[in-house]
Structures are given as structure tokens and as C-alpha cells.
TrEMBL record:
InterPro entries: DinB/YfiT-like, MST-like. It holds the Pfam family MST. It comes from the Bacteria. It comes from Actinomadura gamaensis. This is DinB family protein.
């Protein structure tokens, strides 16, 4: 969808467009970095890496769209249980591919949902609508994209500004 359509579109189109913009922002921050740079810990004493952050987002995509909304019985990739380190331990070598795959599967799940009112079941929160999940995912990306921008600037001084 073009940007004008997303800004003037219906609720579903708008939410999906904003989520895609957040996904694009994370990809732009990581673009051009080597595995070593993705695994660097440039902001001590934090152990946060861009590879770990991308792995975390893969885990979050998998948990909310596949496990909670679609009810798929798929294991988490890196976490032993929800809330553990939730993917931050992912390695740069596998994190980006996992994230890309989970985003693609999430897009299919969202596209096939009958409405934003369709619900999935979270083990602690109970019923959650697709609308709520999309809003939560936008929040999750927005928070971590800020972290990603700081990490990228500390790695190579490149400031990535995403204006969509």
C-alpha cells in the first residue's frame, strides 16, 4: 500500500502499515553490518547486541502471531519459557533469517484473519484481539528500534533516521 493510502486507510490497513514501517526501520538499522558487528556489545555494561535484538523480535513475532493468535503449538526458538531472555541470546548468524521468516508467517496470519476483532488466547492475559496484538507489536518495535539506533551509532557512527 502506498504511504498516502496507509495514512488515510481503514484501521486494519493503517495498523498493518505502521507495523511494516517499524519492521522496515529495524532492517534499515541493521543493513550492511557484518555478523561480527551484529554480535558486538558496543554499549557497556549492557550485553545487548543488534543480533540479540533481532533474535528477540523473531521470538516476539513467533509468540504473538503464531502461538497466541493462530494457536500453533510451535516451540520458542531460543527461550526456555516466555519471559526468559526471549531471544536476546540469538546469534547474528541465525537471528536475521529467523526474524525474516517469522515476519513472513505473521503477514500471512494477519492477512487471513477475518477481522481485527478475531482473538487468540494468551496464557496469562486471556483473550487478545488481533487489533491489540498489532498495537502491542508496534509498541514492541518502537521501543527496541530506539535501542537498535543507539547500538548502530555506537558500532560505526552511522545514524539511521527513518521517516515514513
Amino acid at each position: 500500500m502506498d504511504e498516502t493510502g496507509a495514512r488515510a486507510g481503514d484501521e486494519r490497513s493503517t495498523l498493518v502499515s505502521v507495523l511494516e514501517a517499524q519492521r522496515d526501520a529495524l532492517a534499515m538499522v541493521c543493513a550492511g553490518l557484518s555478523d561480527a558487528e551484529m554480535g558486538a556489545r558496543p554499549v557497556p555494561p549492557s550485553a545487548l547486541t543488534l543480533g540479540g535484538l533481532v533474535g528477540h523480535m523473531a521470538e516476539v513475532e513467533r509468540a504473538w502471531f503464531r502461538r497466541v493468535f493462530a494457536g500453533e503449538d510451535v516451540p520458542l526458538r531460543w527461550s526456555r519459557f516466555p519471559g526468559d531472555d526471549f531471544g536476546f541470546a540469538g546469534t547474528p548468524e541465525d537471528a536475521y533469517d529467523a526474524w525474516y521468516d517469522e515476519c513472513a508467517l505473521a503477514r500471512e496470519i494477519v492477512a487471513s484473519a477475518p477481522s481485527l476483532d478475531a482473538t487468540g488466547r494468551h496464557p496469562r492475559r486471556g483473550a487478545v484481539s488481533l487489533r491489540w496484538i498489532l498495537c502491542h507489536m508496534i509498541e514492541e518495535y518502537a521501543r527496541h528500534n530506539g535501542h537498535a539506533e543507539v547500538l548502530r551509532a555506537a558500532i560505526d557512527g552511522r545514524a539511521v533516521t527513518v521517516d515514513r
